[in-house]
């Protein structure tokens, strides 16, 4: 059965009375987004949504967001990562605790990163290995945008890597709605989740603050997020812009990352400054670093 689908804004306030909204796919400027972690926290708090910070192959954005959320961290942030496996498959991994994300990353990702890797460089470890070591952690996995050709979804690489067909059963979920994808790809993804009896995730795949919360799962208040994903006990909430506009917004946000000089950093691009070096915070000059402080709740003095 498909998940209930809500795309009429006037029905959202009623749903919010008994449900929590979770955007399970968002990027900060630690990978190819434009949003600072502190701004993502503030926007999530303003919207009343929980957001999974799932930067490409790095964890600084997720850990920083958790820290800046303070006492509200567990309510506002899901620590996560979007891995690019050796097969070029994008795999979303979510953890309950930031310590587990940190441990997993440094033990099972960092040793397999190529020298000089940027955030979007594939990790030299196959998806099967990741799924195997992840059994040691309290987590859920989801195949990101599985039918996306340009972004290397699980199903779009299956002709080149036949073995991945047999790994579907080791996943917890399929991303059935991705805010960047066209409707056809999302419909195929939803059908795949139903056909394989896997759980469902959904997220904006946002790279700007304007996109955060535009695609969410609504789960009953007090319910366990991981259980709701696995058992498809959620409502899909779609507040996206029309297709052409949302793709323009997202691709514009990624422009600095994929600019002519590969190491160009989003902050420099936003300030009309140029610079070379790896896409990491350490590549910024001292005067470009802005250290975020904890973001207070709206009713704080």
Describe this structure in words.
The protein has 301 residues and is α/β, with parallel strands linked by helices. It has one domain (5-253): TIM Barrel. The chain has helices spanning 12-16, 37-47, 60-69, 73-76, 98-108, 127-133, 183-196, 225-230, 243-254, 266-270, and strands spanning 5-6, 19-26, 49-53, 77-84, 90-95, 139-143, 173-178, 199-203, 215-220, 235-238. The chain has a ten-stranded mixed β-sheet. Helix 2 (37-47) links the parallel strand 2 (19-26) and strand 3 (49-53). Helix 2 packs across helix 3 (60-69). Residues 259-296 have low confidence and may be disordered.
Structure at a glance:
The protein is an alpha/beta fold and 301 residues long. Helix content is 28%, strand content 18%.
Identify the CATH homologous superfamily. Answer: Metal-dependent hydrolases
Low-pLDDT segments: 259-296
**How many structural domains are formed by the residues?**
1
Mean pLDDT value: 82
Measured between the Cα atoms of the first and last residue, the distance is: 47 Å
Largest sheet: 10 strands, mixed
Tell me the structural class: alpha/beta
- Radius of gyration, taken over Cα atoms and rounded to an integer in Å: 18 Å
| Number of strand elements | 10
CATH class label:
Alpha Beta
